[in-house]
UniProtKB/TrEMBL annotation:
Belongs to the xylose isomerase family. Its EC number is 5.3.1.5. PANTHER family: PTHR48408, XYLOSE ISOMERASE (PTHR48408:SF1). InterPro entries: Xyl_isomerase-like_sf (IPR036237), Xylose_isomerase (IPR001998). It comes from Dioscorea zingiberensis. This is Xylose isomerase.
């Protein structure tokens, strides 16, 4: 039956009329009336059994046969046996508990959850397959039916919110096309998005909201040469971003992100960089205008990334992006969404969960100096390893990431409270805190004055404790 079903490629849910009625009626004429009805019912029954019971294999462009499948067929829990994750302290041996992250605990006058503002990334957590440039997908979560249908999108959204609630975070992030399938037209894509977003709004409840939403302008082949910088696509990309800003606003999102993964060039020989940058700035200005027009008060963020997937991207790094915003008068309208994994590219974005406590300490020191991240937050733009294929692994990865950041916060607080870090830095620059140092910093020491002083002082001393080491290095160099 499956073969017949696929061969007919229905563009709506199949009914009796779609079946080889000529054949059935022919055979009916040769049989009794009751037998014919039985045959017809039997065929219909098999169609229904196929449509509802057997995993669907609908293509990504979505046929209605698939969208007719209800998303309510997944009753109960997506993560059975996994309780709400609690703080149990550093001595706990329970892998499904927090050792360092204690959401309600106050550190330096703020609750840990408010310092962190942790967010789950829908794409890695729920659309990550374990595929990499060398290998096929390894993950097939139990709730997946192999389709990219609207019904599947809704079921996945239910799984997302069960996960978020059990993990105990208040934020999530999404791309438009992660959460709802592409349609055959832009209008159909928008309608699909609306349907999934309506469910997300309901499942969010009063506490959970998007840290940010964004439009995915890089996966579809149409964007292979860019979106805002490829002229014939400019309008299409703008329409997609317009819609994505609207749904982010509708869901109560705090920010909206731009990631220009394809906005750049492979070679300057075929690129008018000036015009492309102008187009990008015009595009971003239009986004600012639209945001204001619909009353969306969220912050617009740009996520810099060097190279990959384009050889040269326009948002190369934080400094380049700031210069771009300054040049085009957009500095007051955008902030930055910095992804630490963009500093550790290995041919592609490694998307690893942070597990280095000293790195987390440095990050949290910056966050404390900034008095928090709000309206920003920490989004886990990180995915499970290819080898992590158990549902439980989704929790373990996030727990470990959250605990690493929490331990970083505790360390940073300690360094600040006991004043040791400030003292270390003070000592490093203490030679400038002298009368002559002040002269230098005021720009009043010219080369003649400095030369005179250098002659007078002789060989500069190596900072204490390192004298011996410096001498050893000097000796071995001889
Ligand atoms: Mn990433």
């Amino acid at each position: 039956m499956a073969g017949i079903y696929l061969a007919f490629s229905f563009d709506r849910f199949p009914t009796l009329r779609d079946f080889p009625t000529g054949v059935s009626w022919l055979s009916c004429r040769m049989k009794t009336k009751g037998g014919c009805l039985f045959l017809v019912l039997f065929i219909e029954l098999i169609i229904l059994a196929y449509a509802y019971g057997i995993p669907q294999t609908c293509p990504a462009d979505l046929v209605e046969g698939c969208s007719a499948v209800s998303d309510d067929d997944w009753k109960g829990e997506f993560f059975p046996g996994i309780p709400k994750i609690k703080y149990e302290g550093p001595n706990s041996k329970n892998p499904l508990s927090f050792k360092w992250y204690n959401a309600e605990e106050e550190i330096l006058g703020k609750k840990m959850k408010d310092w962190m503002r942790f967010s789950v990334a829908f794409w890695h957590t729920f659309r990550g397959t374990g595929a990499d440039p060398f290998g096929a997908p390894t993950k097939m979560w139990p709730w997946e039916d192999g389709t990219n249908s609207l019904a599947m999108a809704k079921r996945r959204m239910r799984a997302n919110f069960e996960f978020i609630n059990k993990l105990g975070v208040d934020w999530w992030c999404f791309h438009d096309r992660d959460i709802a399938p592409d349609g055959r037209t832009l209008a159909e894509s928008n309608a699909n998005l609306d349907e999934v977003v309506a469910l997300a709004k309901e499942l969010q409840g009063t506490k959970i909201r998007p840290l940010w939403g964004t439009a995915q302008l890089f996966m579809h082949p149409r964007y292979m040469h860019g979106a805002a910088t490829r002229s014939e696509l400019y309008a299409y990309a703008a329409a997609q971003v317009k819609k994505a800003i609207e749904v982010t606003h509708y869901l109560g999102g705090e920010n909206y992100v731009f990631w220009g993964g394809r906005e750049g060039y492979q070679t300057l020989l075929n690129t008018d960089m000036q015009r492309e940058l102008d187009h990008l700035a015009t595009f971003l200005q239009a986004a600012v205008d639209w945001k204001k027009k619909i009353g969306f008060n969220g912050t617009l963020l740009i996520e810099p990334k060097p190279q990959e997937p384009t050889k040269h991207q326009y948002d190369w790094d934080v400094a380049t992006t700031m210069s771009f915003l300054q040049k085009y008068g957009l500095k007051g309208e955008f902030k930055l969404n910095i992804e630490c994994n963009h500093a550790t590219l290995s041919g592609w974005d490694t998307d690893q969960f942070l597990s280095d406590i000293s790195e987390a300490t440095l990050v949290m020191l910056s966050v404390i100096r900034n008095d928090g991240l709000a309206p920003g937050g920490f989004n886990f733009d990180a995915k499970l390893r290819r080898e992590s294929t158990d549902v439980e692994d989704l929790f373990l990865a996030h727990i470990s990431g959250m605990d690493t950041m929490a331990r970083g916060l505790r360390n940073a607080a300690k360094l600040i409270e006991d004043g040791s870090l400030a003292e270390l830095i003070r000592k490093r620059y203490q030679s400038f805190d002298t009368e002559f140092g002040a002269l230098i910093e005021a720009g009043k020491a010219d080369f003649e004055t400095l030369e005179k002083k250098a002659m007078e002082w002789g060989e500069p001393s190596v900072p204490s404790g390192k004298q011996e080491l410096a001498e050893m290095i000097f000796q071995s160099a001889l």
